[in-house]
């Protein structure tokens, strides 16, 4: 019995939802409100995920945290639909992609996502109030929220993020020369883990990062979107633009 604590629009949750769907694994979908209600910061949830983030998988009572770790766990425990190469060198290549995707674009995507989606919540709030209600209560995101502050990430931070997304697309484009997938013929966890990040950029209106520049990335994204697992993951209401009115990524100073 699989239970997934997750949030509809969370890119990390979407990575795991695609993986579960590809493997045809049914699960109990426990959707948390990580916005206003902050259900991911309640004591009961922190008992299973002390990081206070989604997703968390519970498999027959056993807890697994962190989206990439959960995907690899699912691959090992439910290998019938293979999403990783059997060759160890190829598997290492996939893991190198996964680490890069966590370190660079996963972190980069948060900056425009927060500036455009979540910042309007703090309009007019002073720093002391913001620190009290937001940054101080999060086990691993305190400093991230503090850096953002009630008026958002600075222009330089947003620009650096977009540059990192551009570099990610460049790298993807080069790999896709030997496609159709990032590792070549086989569709793997590397494709799954980057897909929600690309989809988020598209949702934020930033697909010009690859469109017209990296046609192989555009084709890959179209192939991704055509997969039933992708469509199942991005159900109605799973994209930020569907429930938030998006602000510009970079706020021009008055
Ligand atoms: N490394 C973790 C990161 C998870 C993460 O950052 N989740 C976000 C949603 S995508 C979250 O729960 N944020 C809560 C917050 O900002 O307080 C993973 O991959 O599972």
A few lines on this structure:
The chain has two domains: 2-77, Glutaredoxin (3-Layer(aba) Sandwich), CATH 3.40.30.10; 88-228, Glutathione S-transferase Yfyf (Class Pi), Chain A, domain 2 (Up-down Bundle). It is built from ten helices and four strands. The protein has helices at residues 11-22, 43-48, 67-77, 88-118, 127-133, 142-148, 155-175, 189-203, 215-225, 228-233; strands at 2-6, 28-31, 56-59, 62-65.
The first-to-last residue Cα distance is 54 Å
**Top-tier CATH class of the largest domain:** Mainly Alpha
Low-confidence stretches: none
Number of helices: 10
Order of helices and strands: EHEHEEHHHHHHHH
Q: Which compounds are bound in this model?
A: glutathione
CATH topology of the largest domain: Glutathione S-transferase Yfyf (Class Pi), Chain A, domain 2
Strand line-up across the major sheet: 2-1-3-4
Radius of gyration: 18 Å
Shape field: globular
User: How many extended strands?
Assistant: 4
> How many discrete domains?
2
Q: If classified by CATH, what would the architecture of the largest domain be?
A: Up-down Bundle
Which percent bin holds the helix content? 40-55%
Per DSSP, what share of the residues sits in E-state strands of 2 or more residues? 5-15%
Q: Helix/strand-derived class? A: alpha+beta
Mean pLDDT across every amino acid position? 95
Largest sheet: 4 strands, mixed
Explain what this protein looks like in three dimensions:
By secondary structure, this protein is of the alpha+beta class. It has two domains: 2-77, Glutaredoxin; 88-228, Glutathione S-transferase Yfyf (Class Pi), Chain A, domain 2, CATH 1.20.1050.10. The chain has helices at 11-22, 43-48, 67-77, 88-118, 127-133, 142-148, 155-175, 189-203, 215-225, 228-233; strands at residues 2-6, 28-31, 56-59, 62-65. A four-stranded mixed beta sheet has the order 2-1-3-4, covered by helices on one side. It is globular. The model has no long low-confidence stretch (mean pLDDT 95). Residues 10-12, 34, 40, 53-55, 66-68, 138, 141 line the site of glutathione.
């Amino acid at each position: 019995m699989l239970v997934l604590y997750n949030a509809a629009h969370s890119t990390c949750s979407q990575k795991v939802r695609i993986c579960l769907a590809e493997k045809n694994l049914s699960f109990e979908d426990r959707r948390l409100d990580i916005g206003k209600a902050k259900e991911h910061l309640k004591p009961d949830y922190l008992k299973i995920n002390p990081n206070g983030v989604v997703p968390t998988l519970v498999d027959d009572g056993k807890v697994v945290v962190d989206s990439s770790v959960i995907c690899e766990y699912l691959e090992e425990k439910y290998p019938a639909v293979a999403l990783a190469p059997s060759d160890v060198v190829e598997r290492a290549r996939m893991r190198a992609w996964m680490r890069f995707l966590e370190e660079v674009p996963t972190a980069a995507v948060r900056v425009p996502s927060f500036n455009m989606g979540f910042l309007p919540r703090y309009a007019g709030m002073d720093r002391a109030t913001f620190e009290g209600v937001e940054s101080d209560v999060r086990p691993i995101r305190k400093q991230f929220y503090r850096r953002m502050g009630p008026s958002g990430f600075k222009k330089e931070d947003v620009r650096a993020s977009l540059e990192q997304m551009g570099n990610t697309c460049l790298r993807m484009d080069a790999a896709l020369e030997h496609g159709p997938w990032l590792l070549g013929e086989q569709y793997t966890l590397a494709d799954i883990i980057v897909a929600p990040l690309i989809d988020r950029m598209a949702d934020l209106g930033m697909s010009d990062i690859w469109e017209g520049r990296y046609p192989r990335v555009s084709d890959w994204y179209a192939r991704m979107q055509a997969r039933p697992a992708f469509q199942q993951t991005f159900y109605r209401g799973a994209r930020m633009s569907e429930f938030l009115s998006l602000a510009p990524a970079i706020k021009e100073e008055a």
